[in-house]
Automatic annotation (TrEMBL):
Protein name: HTH lysR-type domain-containing protein
Annotated family: Belongs to the LysR transcriptional regulatory family.
Keyword Ribonucleoprotein: no
Pfam families found in the cross-reference section: HTH_1 (PF00126), LysR_substrate (PF03466)
Length: 298
């Protein structure tokens, strides 16, 4: 059986990238750390670090154990915070992550329903690119990841559930009031644009719209992953962007932005969550997932 204290020492060494650095993090002697690592390696029957003149690096077995150690560390930290909140009559914490568009499309309505069902609770939400979210799930840093779904198979050990679809539209400010209610992207190539930078699912879908129109992705473009900044630039200039309707819903409702149908938009964006397969969610995580399942119109 793995000693949890040795696992904590192993994690400190990994984070510091040295035995001496791990000792400083834990405020214990370097020989104590070396002994703990040696005992842990004997316990698991494998070398966890490769030693060389330039320092240490994880072996394949060490990489496997690191993921588990990070998950255990997150579990313990979460338990401590959950107990503290319970004493204050608050449920949680629930930690979620997501891409900006998926979070803004799904989380606000789910939180409103969660408040009606659970009362006082603590929730932490962080924005991250698609490729970071799977690692965060495996490390136990988040329970649920809000993402664009249906484009590719989820990574190993992760399942995906789709809850909503949202059509893409050309989104413009008042300086483009002259544009018609429907356009082809072929006719918009001379315009200036604001488009996503991160090479995730959202960008791939937007690139696919230009491919459907038989035109290249614009070169006169500001690349920006902040939805707030993107909408502000479009609102205050003649630049165009492409967004799902729900992402721009607030600005569209008060008339500071306008949505124009894209002739080539023959597919809709699907959004939902990813989570670890067969993982037991927290009480708050189960409640949020149940709300999204029962409120989905798909």
């Amino acid at each position: 059986m793995i000693d949890p204290r040795a696992l904590r020492t192993f994690l400190a060494v990994c984070r510091a990238n040295s035995i001496s650095g791990g000792a400083r993090l834990l405020n214990i002697s370097q020989p104590s750390v070396s002994n703990a690592i040696a005992q842990l390696e004997q316990s698991v029957g494998a070398a966890l670090f490769a030693r060389s003149r330039s320092g240490i690096s994880l072996t394949p077995e060490g990489e496997v154990l690191l993921r588990r150690a990070e998950a255990v560390d997150s579990l313990i930290s979460g338990a401590e915070e959950e107990l503290r909140l319970a004493r204050a009559g608050v449920t949680g914490p629930l930690r979620v992550g997501g891409t900006p568009g998926a979070l803004v499309s799904l989380l606000p309505d789910a939180v409103r329903r969660l408040e009606d069902k659970m009362g006082h609770f603590a929730l932490h939400a962080v924005e991250r690119p698609d490729h970071d979210l799977a690692d965060m799930l495996h490390r136990g840093e988040i329970e649920l990841a809000f993402v664009t779904t249906g484009l590719e198979e989820p990574p190993e050990g992760i399942e995906e559930i789709t809850f909503a679809q949202d059509p893409f539209a050309l989104v413009v400010g008042r300086r483009n009031d002259h544009l018609p209610a429907e356009v082809s992207l072929r006719d918009m190539m001379a315009k200036r644009w604001v488009l996503p930078e991160a090479r995730g699912a959202f960008r791939r879908q937007i690139d696919a719209l230009f491919m459907s129109a038989g035109v290249p992705v614009p070169q006169d473009v500001i690349r920006c992953d902040s939805l707030l900044t993107t909408k502000a630039m479009v609102r205050n200039s003649s630049r165009l962007t492409i967004l799902p309707m729900k992402v721009a819903a607030a600005e569209l409702s008060i008339g500071v932005l306008r949505a124009i149908a894209i002739r080539e938009a023959t597919f809709q964006r699907s959004i939902g969550i990813r989570k670890l397969k067969d993982a037991r969610l927290s009480r708050l995580g189960e409640a949020l997932l149940d709300i999204m399942i029962h409120s989905s119109k798909l």
